[in-house]
Batch of 2 targets.
Target 1
Amino acid sequence: MSVGIETASHKAYTEGETTGIPMGKIGIWWFLASEVMVFGGLIGAYVLFRIANGGWADQAEHVNWRLGAINTLVLVTSSLTMILALSAGRSGRHQRAANFLLATVLLGLTFLGIKGVEYSREIAEGFTPASGMFWSFYFLMTGLHGIHVIGGIVFNATLYIAAVRGTLWSEHHEDRLEFAGLYWHFVDVVWIFLFPLLYLA
Amino acid sequence: MMSTIENHDREYIMIWVWLVLLLGAGMMVFTLPIARMPALALIFGIAAVKATLVLRDYMHLRSERMLVYAIAFVPVILALGLALVLIPDIVYRH
């Protein structure tokens, strides 16, 4: 599936001797595995509490599902720009890759901006983390996800600067784009489940 | 070479189109004349399909080796198991 040419020296530098998989890729997947346990445990606790407490329908109806849906569209679109950045980077279209990286950063900031609007509206209406179990989970899960989005934006912005300067495209640094992409898509996957859990169910 | 790259890019855009369509479908579920539990099952089924598309095509899991699958899915099974073993406690207490 991957597009691009890998040189022998590059392979020797990045691949594990026994696995044949680049060390960095194994590292990022291990990191994502630990993240699955963090979000998986949290989502599991939320679902069980919700089942045990009659669904919290009266509290859950106050979230703005339209803004949640717009944010889902924004994040899904940022996943597209991220993978197009990787595709462009691997095929030597460096300016195009930098542009898509910038688009991904801007879409991430858009996501946070919309989330900020949501939070401010909810808090103005009197819904805070202390307003009940649903709101405690809501602010905890979306807040933790938001922190991950901020981390992804910082990662992607760093790569964008490196791409503009041309330092991203050296032989041993190009894989960073793939690792950043894996992290960003994971953040997208987490939101794909948080959206129906918090806004639709 | 360039046409192969363009094909890949077109494929990525098609996946995005599917993700947007599935997002729309997920939000339309509650307008259907079906009970709440089947509607919820449908909503989370659609979310699972969307997540699979991102994992398979954007995270390239379909071309990864078994080791990556093992790293990725063992914690998913553990997290699901963690929640499932607590369900009897919920059932008997509430």
Target 2
Amino acid sequence: MIMIGALVAVCATLVWRRDGMSGVLEILTSDLTLFGGILPRVLAGCLLGAFITEILPHEKVSRSLGPSSGLKGLLIGTAFGAILPGGPFTAYPVAAALLTVGADFGATIAMVVSWTLIGYGRAVAWELPILGTDFTLWRIVISLPIPVLAGALGRFVYVRMYSKGEPS
Amino acid sequence: MNISALIIDITLWGSVAVLGFMAWRRGRVVLVSSLREGSMDFINIVPRIALGVIGSGYIAAVIPPEVITGWLGPDSGWFGVLTAVIAGAATPGGPVVGFSIGAVALKVGGGPPQVIAYVVAWALFAFQRLILWEIPFMPAKFVWFRAAVSLPFPFLAAAIAMVIGKP
């Protein structure tokens, strides 16, 4: 937190030295607008996370997404990440909720990576218009195996790094 | 507000409503306690997100896109892939910035495998998103672990792109 604050302060000072006070204020207003727009979605994301923590039966989650869920757990994580609506304000609270209710690092990694690489939200809203359909589809096809592989690698490394610790 | 933002909001709040209904079916206590829990998370996270979102404009202003496009250059081969991955990790700002830089790089002659590596690296571990979005919501240990595990994959994506070629 302090590090980020310092980084932001340094960057703001650099902007001020370069563009003067008006440059600083211009960025501030545009970011404040963005922040205002994002806030309700952050609330929605936090509520989703909390509901998931309450509703999902913990034994069932740790069976289907836990350390011994095998390839199936990674595939479920991948599918879940791909269909999850919303942006970072939903993906991360939901991922944190999954960790709380018994998913292991591997399945959660598969979910987060799948959300960022093959989730439709960003692809449809930003990538298609900017990079074009051909490139986007090609990129997504190439990315398809990555969430499962990343989850498998994560699980493989995790077991060896924290062999006696219970996965959190 | 554009259409896709509207659709995102509708699906998002729709999911909240469905899950809220499911919680309510479990009983009022479940609903109230998860509402309280979610609101507490929200209150805890807002200051961190505020710093991130309001600060990111300054970070983006200091690292201009031209610098990053330079790294993406027309270098082909694995050296180009490596610089593309570093550029992806260093790219600040939201989705518009990353995809636009990719589009510019394609136009100025960057190879498709390099641009793929760039977009994938940026999606997987752009430092600004890790610090400003992922860390506030998730255990830091998980975030660094996930980023480390993700490292090989932009290279893998570039390799696949080189093998299958562009359609």
